[in-house]
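Ticket #343: bound-state structure for protoporphyrin IX containing FE.
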Amino acid sequence: MGIQFKQETFRDDYTFSNSPEAIRRFPFPFDRDEYMYSVNIEQHMPGPPKSYVEFPIDIDEHYVSEMRDRAIVLKEDPLRCQSLPHMLPAEWDLVELLMDSMSKHYPEHFQLTKDGDRWHWVNQPLGIDQTFTFGDTATLPCPPMEYITRQCQGDFALLDQRQDNLWMDAGIVTTQADWSLDFDIGMNFMEWHGPVPIAHDIGVFDRALKFLLNLQQGRPVRRLNWTMTINPRLDTSPENYHKWGQEKATVTPENVGDKVHLRVELQALWRLPRSNAIVFSIRAYLISMEELVTIPKWGRRFPRILKSLPEPIANYKGLSRYREMTIDWLSKYDDGQPTSPGF
Ligand code: HEM
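RESOLUTION: The complex was predicted; output attached.
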């Protein structure tokens, strides 16, 4: 049986929630009781069945609703999807990567047939049936990156490699943790990471860039990043800060469990075959505090993470305003027992 897709919202009445199965497969990102930035990059190898890394591209119960939310964002703000002209080969590379992966791993939902350059793509959950010529943009209803990423969970940035650096020259970004593609487009790796505290000083970005410049085709890598979000809102962009910034002030001791969410990003990177560009995927997962504490070891560990989080990181992540309230709410789930290393 295929995935049961939920009908839910990530705005207004916020009907998003996780099924017990989605909670069990949530990418809890902490393998110890403290958190500090590091070059936490590992090979993007297949993980256990049903886990969030079973397949290279993870499709889950939120797929259809997330794609609907992306369409709303793009309608209101077309600049969330941009591509500089030299990135067209990378856009087609991305079409191939996503269609191949989705059809191979979720054949009950997505089918791809290839007759030379003549491709036939069927996306059953979204009701799409498209025949096109690979490499010929005129045969798709919109440019190739936009076409396929309107059908795949997660944000995507396409990075051109030149002058020993990576340049954010294309992307579709509608589920971001407070950064802007429109602001960052054309920037390099060090420039777009400019606002991040501490990590530059401890050499994280120097080492990460060096590693990525040598990324090999067929050997993708991944890392987890995290922040927190009030209400299950996917679009926490600077462009819409006036809509969600004020929601931070609505947290009270009574509604922490329902309103405060841990937001984890599964970030994966692939070297692309024709363009030699890199694709960076940012797949956001949300979980409310109520849902999180249903896994006792997470309920024990997360308050310890929040307590020990260095001030500059808490401020950068924008969670200082409700940090104490969240620690207080979570503290009843921390019995003081030691936790073991690992997830
Ligand atoms: C934050 C993009 C790879 C570590 C960010 C931000 C962006 C970004 C846009 C937000 C900056 C802001 O505040 O405006 C990317 C892209 C990557 C990439 C496109 C692909 C090459 C990496 C890698 C690391 C890394 C490989 C490994 C260490 C971080 C950290 C933050 C950050 C630690 C701060 C996150 C937080 O505290 O929430 N990244 N990044 N990034 N990035 Fe990257």
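RESOLUTION NOTES: The radius of gyration is 20 Å.
TICKET STATUS: resolved
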